[in-house]
């Protein structure tokens, strides 16, 4: 079957639901979206990949040409009619267009551009009004379960320090607007000290992880964040310190990047893990 000739209408909007199968769509076919697509094609219990959207639909079709079960590459606005769950792996600016139709239909959106949620709180209200759900997976950050648990009590402070290879930060709007050059640094430089809300604007492709932490804990204005550019690093590293009435804990992770230096390999694996647990007889972690 040719992807460019695939007929989206050939996929029944209800047949998957009747069999108890979660019909999954992927919006965006970069490093993360492609990895999730391959995992779904290889087989995740109770899940079936039914459609993909991408900016370059012809290129996306080429990348998916070796799937065992071919799926159509369609426009974003066609995804909701085909799927129960959409995995958003696209540029943050596209989040409303991707998530809105699914939430209005009472469906689920797995959001990787979590920073964009702060600028589109109306999506949360849309989900509440129509019975939809926004899921922010653990992604590149460990310990979110512990943070959400602590948030049921009183969290006094959350501090995160992110250290990234230079190429993972070059071109960030915050640096460009302030004419901060890091191309030729020879030692670590702190390029940002503020909140996840500010970082979501200044580093939209880099710090979704900080927003996820903030949403899990005490919010994007009380969480403190530092960002360092480190020419000696090859991995994206995050260190978190939490002080709460239930526990005080610290966590550190060093993520291996994908071919996109702004994204860690574990991000796609986090989505795959979430999908695998949807109907699992034993589920570990919330």
Report Rg.
Answer: 19 Å
Helix content: 25-40%
Number of strands: 10
Rough shape?
Answer: globular
Mean pLDDT across the residues is: 90
Task: Please identify the top-level CATH class of the largest domain.
Answer: Alpha Beta
Assess the beta-strand content as a share of residues: 15-25%
Distance between the termini: 39 Å
Question: Could you describe the 3D structure shown?
Answer:
This protein folds into two domains: 3-139 and 267-276, NAD(P)-binding Rossmann-like Domain (Rossmann fold, 3-Layer(aba) Sandwich); 144-262, Dihydrodipicolinate Reductase, domain 2, CATH 3.30.360.10. It has eleven helices and ten strands. It has helices spanning 15-18, 31-42, 57-63, 95-104, 115-119, 122-130, 144-150, 173-177, 196-202, 208-216, 265-276, and strands spanning 22-27, 47-53, 85-88, 108-111, 133-135, 155-164, 189-194, 224-229, 236-244, 248-255. It is globular. Residues 1-19 have low confidence and may be disordered.
Helices and strands in order:
Layout: H1 15-18, E1 22-27, H2 31-42, E2 47-53, H3 57-63, E3 85-88, H4 95-104, E4 108-111, H5 115-119, H6 122-130, E5 133-135, H7 144-150, E6 155-164, H8 173-177, E7 189-194, H9 196-202, H10 208-216, E8 224-229, E9 236-244, E10 248-255, H11 265-276
Parallel strand pairs: 1-2, 1-3, 3-4, 4-5, 6-8
Antiparallel strand pairs: 6-9, 7-8, 9-10
Helix pairs in contact: 2-11, 4-6, 9-10
Task: Give a nutshell description of this structure.
Helices cover 30% and strands 22% of the residues. It is built from 11 helices and 10 strands.
